[in-house]
Design brief:
binds iron/sulfur cluster; three-stranded parallel β-sheet; mainly alpha; about 10% strand; 2 domains; TIM Barrel; about 325 residues; single chain; globular
Amino acid sequence: MSLDMAQSILEPFLLKPEGRLDITFMGGETLLAFGVIKPLVEWIKAGSWNRHYRIFGSTNGTLLTPAIKEWLELNKDTITLGLSYDGLPYSQMHNRGNDDIDLDFFIKTWPNQPIQMTINTESVDRMADGVIYLLEKGAQVHPNVAFEQDEWSDERINEYGSQLYKLALYFNSHPNLPPITQFIHNLNEYANSIDTKKPQYEICGAGNGFQVFDLDGQSYPCHILSPLVLEGDKLLRVKEGLVTQTEDFSDSDCDECPFALSCPTCIACNYLYRDCLQKRDKTHCKIMKTEVFAYIKKETMRLIDKEVLTSEEATRVDSIRKIVEFINYEI
Ligand code: SF4
Ligand code: SF4
């Protein structure tokens, strides 16, 4: 995208007197466009706008040069780069063919920005070691299972559960480390949601607050729901307002599920792979239940060692009992 086009897209958003604007660079690799990003960020920084903003880009870290690092260091409060790195150097080499990444630069420059680890069927065996490796380097970590067309086998899902169990033991013996999202669950909310139908929201905001702009300035609900990925009839339906005119994003298979409020879905992948914005994939269904079960194990191991429970912990134990009954019945 040209600098002029990027400025003409952003200017009206920055001038709107509304809440914070999140600006995210996407590609491909963010730093391939450093020649545009640098003057754009400096233009935003020098401007007088009517709202706060944050600027973010994800990167694989391969294109950093001393000059780019120096500029990023100077502008680290204006722009954050999130590093995608696959845990162990071995996994990084295996998945991306390049381990020559300055991890310490990212950890030191943006200590609160988690490093993104993508977990797939090939890398899941090394997930726990990868998370621990990054945590021990001082990073925060966000491991996430990619939304793919092919379903994971039960054996791979079980391996994911084993990796989470290893991490549960690790986090319980290192309680001050920042938790991974797999271990952030509101068990009381889940327990209270059993037998109650909960709404299913479109959490990411694609097309409803979140927009992606193509090189020509045309807006789309997100990068997957755009000509980058879609074509033909599928793209046409998006252009005609499929996402913006949809109000109900719920999957009827999830009506009775107590985890629905927190269970992530990608409406774009649902549409791409199953031709329906609402139709969730079975892999993530099993992944979500595996994560809740792993978190319950972690919390049980932690609480069982305590001689006295606080009232909050006692409520949590009741919630765990209720969810375990439900999980045993469901899985
Ligand atoms: S629909 Fe999927 S790919 Fe698009 S923004 Fe949401 S989570 Fe991301
Ligand atoms: S865990 Fe499964 S059933 Fe529950 S909300 Fe997620 S996809 Fe639906």
